[in-house]
C-alpha cells in the first residue's frame, strides 16, 4: 500500500496536470501536511483511507456552522478520498431536482410510471411523463386533494387551462394517466373524458430572430482579453456565422477541422447527419486565437474546455447558458424573444432568406434532414411574404346600392 506522502504527491501532480491554480494546490498541500498528517501521527495511523479522513473531520467540524477554513479542509479531504479511490478528480455538478410523489395520489402516479416501463417505454419517455404528473400532483396538493376519489373534473380542467408550456403534451399525458386509473378501477368515473374534446388552439409560434446589426452588436460585446473571452467569441461565431447548435459546438473536436480545405466537417448530434461547412476567415481566426492563447493544455480532443480547473470539455447546457448570457449583456433588447444558440441559428436563416437563397441551399447549410423543416423559416421573412400579398380592389358603391340598398336591411 502506498504511503501517505506518496498519495499526497500523486494527488498534487494530478492537480498540476488539471491546471489547478498554484495557490489552491499550495493550500491543499498545507492542510494535508500540517493538519491531517499530525493527526495521523498522534493517533499512530500508518496509512490513509477514507475512514481516517472521516475521523479527522470529526475533530475539526464540531458545531453546526461551518467556517470557510473548515469548508476548505472538508474539500481537501473529499478530493483526497476521490483521488485515492478513482485515480482522478471529476468536476462536481449539482444534483438534479428530485421529484418525489407521496400519499395515495403519488403512489398511483409512481405505479403508472412503472406501468409505462412494463410497456417498454424508454427512460426518456418516462421522464417526460413524470414532469406533468408532478405538476398535477403539486396542484392537487395545493387544493388539499390527497385521495383519488376526491379529484374533481373542474380541477383537471383548471390545471390544464393554467398550463402554458407544451400544453398539447400535458393534455395527452394526463389523459393517459386518468385512463389508466379508470381501467385499474382506481377511479369510479373516467375523468379522461373531460379531456376527450378539450379544445386548444395553438397559435403559430414564430422563431426568435435578431437583425444583422443586433448580431454584430452581440459579437462585438464580447471582451477577448482573456481565455474565457477568446473561447466565448469563437463559440459565438460558430453559432452566428455558421448556425451550429449548442450540442455541435460542445462536441466539436480537432478532427472536425480541415485547415487545408478551410472546412468544418462533423456529424450533427441532433440528427446524426454529416455536414460540411466552410471555415470562414473570421471564424478560423477566432479559433486560432483561442487555441494559441486561451485553451489550456489537455489530452481531450474536444476544442472547447472550461476555463477553470479541472479543464474538461464544455457541455451542451454550458454552451447554451454562455450564449444566453452574452446576448443578455450585449444591451440588445431581448424582450419577447428567446436568446440562445437556436435564436442565432434562426437569425442566420433569416439572412439567407434576405439574400434570396433557395430552400435546398438553406436546408443544406443548416443541416436539416429535409426542406420541410426549413420551410418553417419562411414565416420570418416578412419582406418576401409581403410581396405575396394580393391587391384587394375597392368595392364599388353600386354593390351597396343594389336592390335599393337592402344589403344593410
UniProtKB/TrEMBL annotation:
Pfam families according to UniProt: Phage_int_SAM_1, Phage_integrase
Domain Tyr recombinase: 205-390
Core-binding (CB) domain span: 103-182
Molecular function GO labels: DNA binding
Segments forming a coiled coil: none
Annotated PROSITE patterns: CB, TYR_RECOMBINASE
Alphabetized InterPro entries for the sequence: CB, DNA_brk_join_enz, Integrase-like_cat_sf, Integrase_catalytic, Integrase_recombinase_N, Integrase_SAM-like_N, Tyrosine_recombinase_XerCD
Keywords: DNA integration, DNA recombination, DNA-binding
GO biological process: DNA integration; DNA recombination
CDD domains named in the record: INT_RitA_C_like
Name used for this protein in its record: Site-specific recombinase XerD
Entry superkingdom: Bacteria
Species of provenance: Mucilaginibacter gracilis
Signal peptide feature range: none
Amino acid at each position: 500500500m502506498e504511503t501517505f506522502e506518496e498519495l499526497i504527491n500523486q494527488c498534487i501532480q494530478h492537480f498540476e496536470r488539471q491546471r489547478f491554480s498554484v495557490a489552491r494546490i499550495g493550500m491543499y498541500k498545507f492542510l494535508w501536511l500540517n493538519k491531517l498528517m499530525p493527526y495521523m501521527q498522534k493517533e499512530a495511523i500508518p496509512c490513509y483511507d477514507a475512514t481516517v479522513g472521516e475521523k479527522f473531520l470529526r475533530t475539526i467540524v464540531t458545531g453546526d456552522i461551518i467556517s470557510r477554513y473548515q469548508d476548505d479542509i472538508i474539500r481537501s479531504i473529499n478530493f483526497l478520498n476521490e483521488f485515492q479511490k478513482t485515480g482522478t478528480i471529476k468536476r462536481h455538478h449539482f444534483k438534479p431536482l428530485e421529484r418525489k410523489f407521496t400519499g395515495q395520489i403519488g403512489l398511483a402516479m409512481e405505479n403508472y410510471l412503472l406501468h409505462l416501463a412494463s410497456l417498454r417505454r424508454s427512460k426518456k419517455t418516462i421522464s417526460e411523463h413524470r414532469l406533468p404528473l408532478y405538476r398535477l400532483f403539486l396542484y392537487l396538493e395545493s387544493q388539499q386533494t390527497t385521495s383519488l376519489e376526491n379529484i374533481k373534473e373542474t380541477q383537471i380542467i383548471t390545471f390544464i387551462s393554467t398550463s402554458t408550456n407544451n400544453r398539447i403534451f400535458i393534455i395527452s399525458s394526463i389523459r393517459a394517466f386518468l385512463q389508466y386509473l379508470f381501467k385499474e378501477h382506481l377511479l369510479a368515473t373516467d375523468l379522461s373524458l373531460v379531456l376527450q374534446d378539450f379544445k386548444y388552439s395553438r397559435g403559430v409560434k414564430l422563431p426568435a430572430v435578431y437583425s444583422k446589426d443586433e448580431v454584430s452588436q452581440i459579437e462585438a460585446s464580447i471582451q477577448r482579453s482573456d481565455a474565457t473571452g477568446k473561447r466565448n467569441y469563437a463559440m459565438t461565431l460558430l453559432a452566428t456565422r455558421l448556425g451550429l447548435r449548442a450540442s455541435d459546438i460542445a462536441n466539436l473536436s480537432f478532427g472536425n477541422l480541415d485547415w487545408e480545405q478551410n472546412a468544418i466537417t462533423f456529424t450533427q448530434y441532433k440528427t446524426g447527419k454529416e455536414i460540411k461547412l466552410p471555415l470562414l476567415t473570421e471564424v478560423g481566426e477566432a479559433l486560432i486565437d483561442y487555441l494559441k492563447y486561451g485553451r489550456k493544455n489537455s489530452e481531450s480532443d474536444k476544442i472547447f474546455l472550461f476555463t477553470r480547473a479541472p479543464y474538461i470539455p464544455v457541455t451542451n447546457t454550458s454552451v447554451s447558458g454562455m450564449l444566453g448570457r452574452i446576448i443578455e449583456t450585449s444591451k440588445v433588447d431581448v424582450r419577447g424573444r428567446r436568446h440562445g444558440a437556436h435564436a442565432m441559428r434562426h437569425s442566420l436563416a433569416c439572412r439567407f432568406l434576405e439574400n434570396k437563397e433557395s430552400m435546398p441551399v438553406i436546408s443544406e447549410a443548416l443541416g436539416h434532414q429535409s426542406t420541410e423543416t426549413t420551410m418553417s423559416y419562411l414565416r420570418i421573412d416578412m419582406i418576401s411574404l409581403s410581396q405575396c400579398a394580393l391587391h384587394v380592389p375597392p368595392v364599388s358603391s353600386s354593390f351597396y346600392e343594389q336592390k335599393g340598398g337592402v344589403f344593410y336591411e
